[in-house]
Write a structure and sequence with these properties.
The complex is a heterotrimer of chains A (186), B (383) and C (301). Chain A is built from 6 helices and 6 strands. With 186 residues, chain A is α/β, with parallel strands linked by helices. Chain A has one domain: Pyruvate-ferredoxin Oxidoreductase, domain 3, CATH 3.40.920.10. A 6-stranded mixed sheet of chain A has the order 2-3-1-4-5-6, sandwiched between helices. In chain A, 50% of the residues are buried. With 383 residues, chain B is α/β, with parallel strands linked by helices. Chain B is globular and about 70 Å long. In chain B, the strands form 3 sheets. In chain B, strands 2, 3, 4, 5, 6, 7, 8 and 14 form an 8-stranded mixed sheet that branches. Chain B has a 5-stranded mixed sheet with strand order 11-13-12-15-16, with helices on both faces. Chain B has 2 domains: 178 residues, Rossmann fold, CATH 3.40.50.970; 112 residues, Rossmann fold. Strand 10 of chain B pairs parallel with strand 2 of chain C, so a sheet runs across the interface.
């Protein structure tokens, strides 16, 4: 969590169909239902059901959350080049940018963490739709904004029966990739 | 594994919370028509009502939706519909019937930016005056506006309760921000919410006056299929419910449907205040805007400005009581709204020029930011 | 005769609401008395009937019928009736609408009610004109006929209300006229007994407006028109389109037995509440937790 224990903002961005809304939901549930923090999740809605830009913001705080939207985000996850370009400026100074290096080629931001989430999802879980959960594993590891066990339980509570193992695998893969990536940047 | 699930904590969407409030209040009939940003209410009800002995139907339009919930209410159900601006416009016709015939029902309006189709997925608070004056003819309405997801549950229960108690349609005025956002909520223990009931007509079957409009108490409402047979009409009617054109009876009726609500404005007022004890600048807000205003009050306090927030949950009937009480200590009131100035008109009317009232409107389909309100206040103060 | 008076005494409201607003000789009285005879014959308790209407001359019918009665807004009778029936399925729900009410302003509600197959009986009193507002042309005013807003003859073409109902999927559709009273009684009874959405189109006479503008000098002239211009289904089958020109067909056009909405819905609910899978059980537990947030459980109905 942040040093002051107050407000922490996470933005998950990419394109429709990447499971970012669900990712935000899982993050918020982990932080609230298991960690006991306040959360607010907002999202941008477009008329398209699939494709197009997609973004969701999760505000996590130990205190009351008044303003519900993100202001300057602490963590930005960008799962497409368009998202990386568009939202890089929404990061606060010292904020952390995490990109899916499989889909994002150029990153303007120094110190950005680059992990090929989509590729890892396909390699380890067999389908790219696990990329969101892989990314959550990485976010938890890199930020500590949610407790690892909390995230794991929140994910297990919501995923379809029979997919628990693959989802846990996705979380673990994300966590491991984050550890490696951090070593590389440090 | 250290993390433990707290079963009472949920992360709920505002719309979902409305539906939960409805279930808690015993709503057992829902009719609706799909419209963004309110459809999640209908989806929840479609999914859950059959599990608890209720019934859901998707009607052919919003006119039919409100008609169906009024019909269901007359037949004994607690009923609700949910919509947004364009659908709310279509509902005005039968909202008037429910006002005149005094039929309890709840309309959730998740406000989006208009006019016309406007911005389907962006917030506004521009239906405030439509809620009050949208249907033709003299009438009154009760409208509540939540600012948090938990309040979506609480105020939906209130809407059902007030609709039943005063035999009137009530409107839950959400805005897109509150309707669509997901927020952590700690569910209160079972039995926490009380809901009034429309009452049962007396045993005398021949002397039942379903539309009595005298004295202080609202007549109990029977239900079709119950022991009392009765007539309901959208024509102006006498105490038996039959059409009348007798001037005295008509006059009494119209006064009744307006006064039973307007005369209780102070009693029905639900407010929430933040740092108003010593404030000399008052932010007056509701819905999602009030959350921003609260953040702004904190910012202003940090700058040494004695700001406070009066957040109204009851939009209609409008009560000026707290404004009057606070007025002597104020040097200014700022009313931020996501419209071109609607509820501010009531504030101005209440204050009557005693304290400067400044409007801050936002109509670009975006929520205010705390900085925007803070800057406006500081600029106004230095002007 | 005494039987008729007895029926009227039993099934008309006692509250001094008579005489009706209808003109002497108007077919609406015929329709209402037929309805009362049928209800009486079927021995449906008055408290178990809900009569629902919209606006117009026909819309006034519930004011007189002694049952639960609901006089709604223009065109919306079926939408209100849908709520009434779903909230209390044991009610016999009957709607009375005119042609403008049912087919113009209420046209959308009409076709969707036909499609849904909720057990409601819809009487469409078709007098081919807006009577109460003074004789403007309606969706059933025949092409070329006059109304106060069609002073030179109707430019538009008319709806065939029964064909519309059948096309929209109503499971019972019949048509007769106020001249054919015995047939009307029989059809209304069939319609009320039919389990599903039933439509009875009753050709009626507004001699005050339609008749005056279209050269029918008295109610009798209009009854004569109904007698002479209508043919039974069987007769119609043997006639060419040219011979049928300007005539209307009487008979039961549709009588299908298909699942009724509430029956299907309640079966579904029954299945859901007895479903023992984990997903269904969790869903029930969650919603019951929400239900218990309130201090009372059920509404009055």
């Amino acid at each position: 969590m942040t040093k002051n224990g107050g407000r922490f903002e996470v933005r998950l961005s990419g394109s429709g169909g990447q499971g970012l809304m669900l990712g935000g939901k899982l993050l918020a549930e982990a932080a609230s239902v298991y960690d006991g923090k306040n959360t607010v999740q907002t999202q941008s809605y477009g008329p398209e059901a699939r494709g197009g830009k997609s973004k969701t913001d999760v505000v996590i705080s130990t205190e009351e959350i008044d303003y519900p939207k993100a202001t300057k985000v602490d963590v930005l996850l960008a799962m497409t080049q368009v998202a990386a370009d568009e939202y890089a400026d929404s990061l606060k100074d010292g904020g952390l940018m995490i990109v899916d290096s499989y889909l994002v080629e150029t990153v303007e931001r120094d110190g950005a963490i680059q992990i090929p989430f989509t590729m890892l999802a396909v390699e380890h879980c067999g389908r790219m739709l696990f990329a969101n959960v892989v990314a959550l594993g990485a976010i938890a590891e890199l930020t500590g904004v949610v407790d690892w066990d909390s995230l794991s339980k929140a994910v297990m509570a919501r995923v379809p029966e029979g997919t628990e193992e693959l989802n846990q695998k996705a979380l673990d893969v994300g966590r491991e990739a984050a550890m490696n990536a951090r070593e590389k940047t440090n | 594994m250290s993390a433990k699930r707290n079963k009472d904590i949920k992360v709920l969407q505002g719309n979902e919370a409305c539906a939960i409030g409805a279930v808690a209040a015993g709503v057992n009939f829902f009719a609706g028509y799909p419209i963004t940003p309110s459809s999640e209410v209908a989806e929840f009800m479609a999914r859950h009502l059959p599990l608890i002995g209720g019934r859901f139907i998707q009607m052919e339009d919003e006119i039919a939706s409100i008609a169906a919930i009024i019909g269901a209410s007359i037949a004994g159900s607690r009923s609700m519909t949910a919509t947004s601006g364009p659908g709310f416009s279509l509902m005005q016709e039968n909202l008037g019937l429910a006002c005149l015939a005094e039929i309890p029902c709840v309309v959730v309006n998740v406000m989006r930016a208009g006019p016309s189709t406007g911005l389907p997925t962006q917030p506004a608070q521009a239906d405030v005056m439509q809620t009050r004056w949208g249907t033709h003819g003299d009438h009154a309405i009760i409208a509540l506006a939540p600012s948090t997801v938990l309040e979506c549950i609480e105020l939906t229960v209130c809407c059902v309760s007030l609709a039943e108690k005063y035999r009137t349609p009530t409107v839950l005025l959400l805005d897109e921000v509150i309707g669509h956002m997901r927020e952590s909520v700690t569910l209160p223990p079972p039995g926490s919410y009380h809901c009034e009931s429309r009452g049962t007509p007396g045993a005398d079957l021949d002397d039942y006056c379903p539309a009595a409009c005298e004295g202080d108490t609202v007549a109990p409402l029977g239900h079709f299929g119950g022991p009392h047979r009765f007539h309901v009409t959208g024509l102006t009617h006498d105490k038996h419910g039959f059409p009348t054109m007798v001037p005295d009876e008509v006059d009494q009726k119209i006064h009744w449907i307006v006064d039973k609500i307007e005369s209780r404005a102070d009693e029905l007022a639900m407010n929430d205040e933040f740092m108003t004890d010593d404030c000399d600048v008052l932010l007056f807000a509701y819905g999602s805007t009030a959350r921003v205003a609260k953040a702004s009050v904190r910012q202003l306090r940090e700058q040494g400005i004695k700001a406070g927030l009066l957040r109204v949950k009851t939009i209609w009937p409008f009560s000026g009581k707290r404004l009057h009480e606070l007025a002597p200590q104020l040097r200014g009131i700022v009313v931020p709204e996501m419209n071109m100035g609607q509820l501010v008109l009531e504030v101005e009317r209440t204050i009557g020029g005693g304290v400067p009232v400044r409007r801050l409107g936002r109509v670009d389909g975006r929520l205010f930011t705390p900085d925007q309100i803070t800057d406006f206040v500081t600029e106004e103060l230095s002007a | 005769m005494s039987q008729a008076i007895e029926t009227a005494r039993t099934y008309l409201k006692p509250h001094k609401k008579l005489p009706t607003v209808w003109c002497g000789g108007c077919g609406l009285g015929v329709i209402m008395s037929s309805l009362l005879r049928v209800i009486s014959k079927m021995e449906i308790p008055k408290n178990d009937i809900a009569t629902v209407s919209g606006i117009g001359c026909t819309g006034r019918m519930p004011t007189y019928v002694d049952s639960n009665t609901l006089h709604t807004t223009h065109g919306r009778a079926l939408a209100f009736a849908t709520g009434v029936k779903l909230a209390n399925p044991k009610l016999t729900v009957i709607t009375a609408m005119g042609d403008g009410d049912a087919l113009a302003i209420g046209g959308n509600h009409f076709i969707h009610a036909c499609r849904r197959n909720i057990d409601i009986t819809a009487i469409v009193a078709n007098n081919c004109i807006y009577g109460m507002t003074g004789g403007q042309y309606s969706p059933t005013t025949p092409h070329g006929k006059r109304g106060t807003t069609a002073p030179y003859g109707n430019v538009e073409h008319e709806f065939d209300a029964s064909a519309l109902a059948a096309g929209a999927g109503a499971s019972f559709v019949a048509r007769t006229s106020v001249y054919h009273v015995r047939e009307l009684d029989k059809m209304l009874e069939q319609a009320i007994r039919h389990r599903g959405f039933s439509v009875v189109e009753v050709m009626s006479n507004c001699y005050t407006s339609y008749g005056r503008l279209n050269k029918y000098k008295s109610p009798v002239d209009m009854f004569r028109w109904m007698k002479e211009s209508s043919v039974t289904l069987r007769e119609a089958e043997r006639m060419s389109p040219e011979e049928l020109e300007g005539k209307f067909t009487r008979g039961v056009f549709v009588e299908n037995y298909m699942p009724e909405f509430i029956e299907v819905y309640d079966n579904l609910a029954e299945r859901l509440t007895s479903d023992s899978t984990t997903v269904a059980t969790q869903l029930r537990e969650t919603v019951e937790r929400y239900e218990r947030l309130g201090d009372r459980l059920k509404a009055v109905g």
